Amino acid sequence: MLIEQLSIAYKCHSSIGNSLNLKEMIHEVLRTFVSESYAIYSEFLIKDELNNLIKIDSFGRINNFDAKKYISYTKSLDLIIDDNIRVLKINLENGTLFLVFKNICQDCTFFVSMFESLISKLNISVNACINFEKLEKTNELLKEQKTELIKANKTKDDFLANMSHELKTPLNSIIVISSTMAKNKDNKLDETQLKNMKIIKKCSEDLAILINDILDISKIEAGALKLEIEKIDLKIFIENIFDSFEAVFLEKNLILKKEIKALNFQVYSDEKRLSQIIKNFLTNAMKFTNEGFITIKLLEFEKYFQIDIVDTGIGINNENLENIFDRFQQVDDSRSRKYGGAGLGLCISKELASMLNCKLKVKSEISKGSTFSLLIPKNIEEEIVENSIINQEVLEKKVDKTDLYKSLDLKNSKEIYVLHLNSVEQFKITIALKKFGFLVHPFFNIEEFFSKIDLLILNKNNIFLIDKNIEKFESIQKKFEHNKNQLLVLDELKNNEILFEKIREFLNK
């Protein structure tokens, strides 16, 4: 008898908490409780927010069972004799479980004791199911809200972009006309009119900058801003920016200096966007520097170049440095009123720097000035390529073609040559292979390939990755009739890991 009771208790205990779905979990509990006890029927109800009883599930058969009849029984466990049935009512924290026994003469002492011991576990399981259901509903609601927010944000961005374009057309006309009239070639304007015309021109230019900033933010958020990667000489880059800003700084009685401390100046990036970041830094420096000088510095480190914009301006409190690159942020409202600006320039700079795999740094001291730094990596990353527009002209700048012959004097050298129909894909493959430590050289067109292949193929250590869809592919295959192991067809090796493994197999021979 004892063994049988232990078995029943174990089965009933094990039936609780096997699912986070309330109905599934309760169904298993009710089925087990009825099967293992003398009960003929079981039912579980919970109260809604209005205190109404809601039936979740039941098991077994009975005629005209009404749970509301037993609502006055409020103990954690009640055994109720009603006509020709016994009702065991188990009151939980978030629900009520009923077990109905038909034989009122049957001794239910063991079952009452057992079910009483299960109340704690039932409470935990039911509460877990209810909380999980609430969490799922909350997550669904959050997903819906996120979708709505994305949709609303896109609508806003589209509106801003369209409105900005609509505003730019008349604004450009105002700038051109006011600029022309401000020159006063016919001497028809008096001093007051000239002053007013210059104010119109200045305000129009400020508004044009704001509109362009809004357009850039919209493009960045929409993922529509594409980079144009090219080879940049940072020395020339700095000198061009210096020349374009020097006169502007002199008008404000500020001195613009430059310091170039680098041996190598070549880097691959988007010149337009790098220039935009540095110009934002310079504009900020000029705005918040009343006297003294601003210095543009170019420094070279092992893995990156650093461009510093150092000013002798009013400086920034340390507590305000954390959000200096946030959208629409000024250090305080008084600055916004005094110096103007919407606080978009530095935010855009941060977004552009992230897209270019660059980093921004700032340090400042009140009344002594600030230093804004742009760190540009020397090696272009594959992630940048995926969001870039790469032109054939840019690719031709990427590798010095004389490098293709350097390995010919080294009989034991092992190098990889790539020819792909799509120049962007070719650049991606080149970058990916270089990241794995391979020495890689791209061909820039089919003519270059045929002009050099006869010489390059003589070195048995060289390997060639060729796009199957390239023009004259069959003619290319014939070149490798006696050197088939040196040719890898890219169309058949779409997975990078497989490609790298094939290359390793060849290079390790």
From TrEMBL:
Transmembrane segments: none
Keyword field: ATP-binding, Cell membrane, Kinase, Membrane, Nucleotide-binding, Phosphoprotein, Transferase, Two-component regulatory system
Superkingdom per UniProt: Bacteria
Catalysed transformations (reactions): ATP + protein L-histidine = ADP + protein N-phospho-L-histidine
Xref: Gene3D superfamilies: 1.10.287.130, Histidine kinase-like ATPase, C-terminal domain
Subcellular location(s) of the protein: Cell membrane
GO cellular component terms attached to this protein's record: plasma membrane
InterPro entries: HATPase_C_sf, HATPase_dom, His_kinase_dom, HisK_dim/P_dom, HisK_dim/P_sf, Sensor_HK_Regulatory, Sig_transdc_His_kin-like_C
UniProt keyword Transferase, yes or no: yes
SMART domains: HATPase_c, HisKA
EC number: 2.7.13.3
GO MF: ATP binding; phosphorelay sensor kinase activity
Keyword Iron: no
Pfam family, one: HATPase_c
UniProt protein name: histidine kinase
